[in-house]
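Entry type: protein chain
Record version: 2
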Amino acid sequence: MMGVKIYVSGIVQGVGFRYFTRKLAKELGVKGYVKNLSDGRVLAVAEGEKNQIEKFISGIKKGPRTAVVKKVEVEEYEPLENFKDFEIAF
């Protein structure tokens, strides 16, 4: 298991990015959450197997067609394994 915090910059708010991220996470079996940050970025916190997380990050780098992803920063952390699903946080 691995955990990551993914900070996404660009045109990523108001374009369906969080819903895209949740759908991708559910398809891959990744647990965690995604939310908008006040500085215009989106934060995704995700836990799963290494190959699931790698596919998840790859998908986030592309984003939905409506978004323009300019920068993706990934921070690894020890997974807490306390997420039951992947949700949109507010």
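Comment: The CA atoms of residues 36 and 42 lie 5 Å apart.
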